Structures are given as C-alpha cells and as structure tokens.
Amino acid sequence: MQKINVTIWNEFIHERGEDPVGVLIRKIYPDGIHNALAENLAAEDLSIRAVSLDMPEQGLPDEVLNSTDVLVWWGHCAHAQVADALVDRIQNRVQHGMGLVVLHSGHLSKIFRRMLGTQCRLRWREIGEKERIWVVDKSHPVAQGVPETFTLPHTEMYGEPFDIPDDGKIVFLSWYEGGNVFRSGVAFQRDAGRIFYFAPGHETYPIYHDATVLKVIGNAIRWAALPGGIQPDRITSQPEPLEKVLTENPLKTLNTAELHHSK
User: Fold this and answer.
1) Distance, CA of 95 to CA of 231 (rounded, Å)
2) Which of 23, 54, 134, 157 could join 176 via S-S bond, C-beta 3.0 to 4.6 A?
3) Which helix or strand (DSSP H or E) is residue 39 part of?
4) pTM of structure
C-alpha cells in the first residue's frame, strides 16, 4: 500500500495563550489542533506529520512541502505572518497536484484566497449555538460514509454570503440554530490540484474530536490526493504540431532584428 503523505499545518498560537480562552483551548487540544488532528486521523493509508508556524521556515521547508501529497491548513489569528514566498511555493505545488484541505477560519488564509481569487469573506457569530450539517451531494467522494445529516451541539456560526467563486462544488450545507445557513463543505479544482474547504472546527469547541467531522476530513484528504502523485509540468509552451502544417509561415522571411522590432 502506497501511503498518502499528509502535512497538517497550524498556527499553534491560540493553544498557548495564558488568557482564559487559551486555558480552555489547551484543555481540548493540549498539544495543539494540528497534533490532535494527526492523532485522530491516524490510519494505515496515511503518513501524517504535524507542523506549525513557529518551526523553521514556518513549518514548511522544501523537504517537507515537496514530499507532501495533501496539505491540511488551519489558521486564524496569524494569516498575515505567513510569508508571501511560502504562499508562492504552496500555490505552485497545488497547481502541480498537491491537495489542499482548508479548515474553518483558514478561509481567510493567504493561500486559500490566492487559490480562489476572492477575499473569501463571510458572516460570523460566536454564541455556542447548534449547527446541523447536511450532505447535499451524496455522490461526492468526500461525502462517502457520512450520514445524510449530523449535528454539532456547540459551534461558531459561519453565514452567507460567502465570497467564494461559483465553480465550487457544494458537498455540505450547514444550518445554525440562529437561523443562518452556510456552504460549509465546498470542493474546487485548480490546475492539477484539488482543494476542499470544510467550515466546522472552532478552536474553543471539541469539534476535531467528533467522529463524523473526522470522517469528512479523512475523506477530503483521500479525495484531494492526486492519483499517481504530484505531476511535473504538463503544458509545453511550443508543442510540436500533431498534423503536417502546409501553410507558409509569414515570419519565416523576417530576420531576428525585424522580428524583435515588430513586437
């Protein structure tokens, strides 16, 4: 069995705060959200490593990023601290086929907004209300084995309008106790790379210990992993013609200086 190499990235900032919220989060995720996900998602077909913003090269040096089949991203309060050069490298990897699974407040991360080309803004409210999640595309691989509907007793509300492109495939839709609705699970394709956004996962609630939520994230990882691994450049700038070209090239009689001048 060829394992999927998964890297889970987390800011790892909230969990170390000394304020009452930080203390609460440490009770839920004592070793950080990234390590909790790594432990809870462990499976025979996944090789998982957990990294964080405070590590060398912000947790994603070339040797880590270039050996990652699927990158799982959780961020909230330090989006601006992520280096643009790192975002460039991640974008290049996704375009060549590395999967990207973006969780919860990662909707405002540099890499998610870069890949989608929008600001990815939404409405939000944090009063600990109930969330009901519905599967709206039972045929999608990320929905396989997930019940038609399930609930989270306490969550942060994310509500429409959600500023994402129209080409996303909606897999999950959420309804909140306060009346809002949200496209909470959406799949995208960018060049060779598959991207999945999944909203449930606020840091002050034990959502990443919920078996159904973990099922969705595991499915998303397996769906986002490109069969056969990351692909090299597939587009040749000047491919040879497939058929014989009989039309005479009008530029053939121009010398190099004339050709450059014409541009």
Assistant:
1) 9
2) 157
3) helix 33-40
4) 0.90
